[in-house]
């Protein structure tokens, strides 16, 4: 099989497996909504304040919801032996991993980004600002999926790993958060957003290039 | 150089070398730190703006400088361990991680003690403080990752992978945070210009920076030797050594 064909095949398989276990994908979304609900309840229902906080809340909720979803990235395939077979198949490990990152992003992160539309009614966020926020969330969630794939692969065999996940991912995510905030600030003041947005995209592309190599290395380590 | 380095791939030789580092450098570094602190605390002139409270610089700056330096050396050791599959390098990464975490914590604590009289607050969300705090989390991550594995060897390799990723990320984090917010005073020694700190104040600081480096090497040597003994505890040379 050609590499491109193999890649397509991997994506297809991930979506087919996902279609058989639909209930799993609802959980992060419900968690995301719960975090959104917690904020107005804990700081009070004042519209001006909520409006200012909305982008930050969207980002925090996304990070928390993804921390719930990330440990599942490789665990199932590791336990039923599918990963081992894949790595024995002779295809490059980074190809396998990047297919998984993309399917994970489409299955878990994309719904979360769409759910962030709830910020518009809940936090009286303007639609125009939400659109910018959604762009930063799209990039940021891709970046987080890349970083998370490394962490998830490192912890795939470990029983005590769930608490460590946040410690591994969050410090590395901080640059993305900073540039996303800068983008939102610029958009809030009607300034051009291209500068910080492009840096965020560059970080994402960099992570998408480097992370699969590290992830493949980490998986090989755990497969022994 | 490789001919000279080659014998140290053997654990016995590496053990002896690291212990001799400890033996020679520990007294030297302690003397250096003693002299530097004595000079800095007693004889260096008082700052005209900050009074005597600036003297914490003699502890704050060396630990802050080497907290970053240790992370770099840890990342390089992790990279070597992964590329050339050198097991002793993995052990050295584990030997360095807690020392680096302590240095970082020390820099944060002395920094906040200094910040209270000067800036009027224990903590501000300033660029250098934030990136130092994130550095502490990176160290803790390496350590926590190692301990979340049952098999020591796998844990050590995982920690190496994380150290390398962290090393790539440290500059990105540093500059992005700097871009985000800056209040901390600029660098006074490391810029490529005449240092903007007076000579009599500078000398004890340089002595302290250098002796803290020696102190770090000595500590690493000691921890490396101990970790090596633990990892090789079933081997013959260790059993002979302990007898």
Give the secondary structure arrangement, pairings included.
The complex is a heterodimer of chains A (224) and B (243).
Chain A: H1 3-20, H2 23-43, H3 47-69, H4 72-79, H5 82-88, H6 93-115, H7 119-122, H8 127-154, H9 162-188, H10 194-223
Chain B: H1 2-5, H2 11-43, H3 57-84, H4 87-119, H5 127-147, H6 152-180, H7 199-231, H8 236-242
Structural description of this entry:
The complex is a heterodimer of chains A (224) and B (243). With 224 residues, chain A is mostly helical. Helix content of chain A is 84%, strand content 0%. Chain A is built from ten helices and no strands. The longest helix of chain A is centred in the last third of the chain and has 30 residues. In chain A, 43% of the residues are buried. The model of chain B has no long low-confidence stretch (mean pLDDT 83). Chain B has one domain. Chain B is an all-alpha fold. The chains are: A mainly alpha (224), B mainly alpha (243).
Question: How many strand segments of chain A?
Answer: 0
Oligomer: heterodimer
Mean pLDDT of chain B: 83
Shape of chain A: globular
Q: Decide which structural class fits the backbone of chain A.
A: mainly alpha
